[in-house]
Every structure is written in structure tokens, then in C-alpha cells.
Specification:
heterodimer; A: mainly alpha; 7 helices
């Protein structure tokens, strides 16, 4: 979403995508992220009245089309299905780390897939989850110090933790 | 004794969850478009950037949405 929405962290996310396309990293997303993105766009239309219905549908079409583009493995952007194991396992994070059920799905998906870093722009997740799940780090994409460290690790092919 | 030892919060289950196969993902996304009555030919990256520039940050919207349940 940050690729299309020019906001803090957008440049960094775009750079991460470029690194994935170059084959330097792999990016994993839960398929749930697509539903969430569409729900967020709909709120802008239906609740906030910030965009028109036509605008909403253009953005949804673009999100789905972008997903279709990334369905080609050459981009190194992979979607993880919402399986029973993820739904059942992620609930533990809700009560142990006090994060929302949606956040728990995203975090648990990264954990179970052995991701080195979970990238977000949410202070609550950063504060509640970082250093709690083995060696998977939580990175706030708007934190320039952390993000620069990540880019340096990728450049030097070193682990992030 | 030097060093810190962390007790893992939860065990990582020994299961393999494969990524969605590209073809299956493409099918899913097309099905979503059909369910939402969205014409994929209307996808327009430039226009999308313009639309989103006029409104509040999208990622913030997701965070609010997640935290409000």
C-alpha cells in the first residue's frame, strides 16, 4: 500500500521491493494483507467520504492488478495462504503479546516462515513484539536508523538480527 | 554468569506452509475482482497515487482498522 500512498516509509518500501525484484531479498506477505488493503480503501469511501466510489474501485483494481504482477515468481514477492495452522497459532500472540487478531496473523505468518524481519509502521507492534519471537526482529519502516541498518545488512548479505 | 537467556515465548511449529503458487494467486485475485465487481482493466497506478495523495495515509488507516477491531 505504501508504494501507491506517498507517506512516511513509502520510499523505503519501494526500495525493498526493488531489492526483491533484483533477487537480493524475498518478501513474504499474508494473503490477508490484500483483504485488509481493500477494507482500508473502502473505509476511505464509505466512512471517511474522502474518495468517490469510482476512485475506490480504481484503487482496488490497481491493488489486485499489482498482486497479479507479483504472482510471477521472478519478482520474489510471495503470498502465504491463511491456513488453519496460522489461524490457530496466531491467537496465542493476541493474549501473550496483546496485539490485534489481524496483526497476530501477519506476525505469526512471518514467524512460521522464518522471516528475519517483520516490517511494519506500527509502534504498538514494534513495542509489544520485538525481541519476543526468537530471532525475528520487528522493524518500523519509518525509523530511519533501523531501516538504514537493514539496508546495510542486505548490502553486506548479513543477517539482520 | 554473563549473557542473557531467553525462554521462547512460543515454539515455532514444525510445519511447512508453502507460499501460494503464482497461478493460484492469480486465480484468487481474479476471483476477488469478480466478487467485488471490479474491472481489472481500470487498474491505473498513476491515478491511484493521485487518489491516495488527496486522502489521509492509507497505512495509518490499516493500523486504525486493526486496532479498532
Amino acid at each position: 500500500m505504501k508504494i501507491f500512498s506517498q507517506e512516511p516509509g513509502s520510499q523505503e518500501v519501494t526500495h525493498l521491493m526493488e531489492l526483491a525484484h533484483e533477487g537480493r531479498i524475498q518478501i513474504l506477505l499474508s494473503v490477508w494483507a490484500i483483504n485488509e488493503a481493500i477494507a482500508a480503501i473502502d473505509r476511505k469511501y464509505n466512512q471517511r467520504h474522502e474518495i468517490t466510489l469510482e476512485d475506490r474501485d480504481t484503487v482496488i483494481a490497481t491493488i489486485l492488478q499489482q498482486g497479479l504482477e507479483w504472482s510471477d515468481p521472478k519478482y520474489n514477492v510471495y503470498f502465504v495462504p491463511l491456513e488453519k495452522t496460522i489461524i490457530n497459532g496466531s491467537i496465542t500472540l493476541v493474549t501473550k503479546l496483546h496485539i490485534s487478531a489481524d496483526d497476530a496473523i501477519q506476525v505469526y505468518t512471518s514467524f512460521i516462515k522464518h522471516c528475519e524481519a517483520f516490517i511494519c509502521s506500527d509502534e504498538h507492534i514494534k513495542n509489544n513484539v520485538d525481541h519476543k519471537l526468537e530471532d525475528m526482529r520487528i522493524l518500523d519502516i519509518t525509523d530511519s536508523y533501523e531501516t538504514n541498518r537493514l539496508f546495510k545488512c542486505i548490502e553486506q548479505e548479513r543477517p539482520f538480527y | 554468569m554473563q549473557g542473557k537467556f531467553r525462554v521462547p515465548l512460543l515454539e515455532r511449529p514444525d510445519v511447512t506452509i508453502e507460499n501460494v503458487d503464482g497461478k493460484e494467486l492469480a486465480r484468487t485475485l481474479k476471483e476477488m475482482a469478480k466478487n467485488l465487481n471490479i474491472d481489472l482493466s481500470k487498474a491505473d497506478k498513476k491515478k491511484t497515487v493521485e487518489i491516495l495523495r488527496k486522502s489521509s495515509p492509507l497505512a495509518d488507516e490499516v493500523v486504525k482498522m486493526r486496532n479498532s477491531g
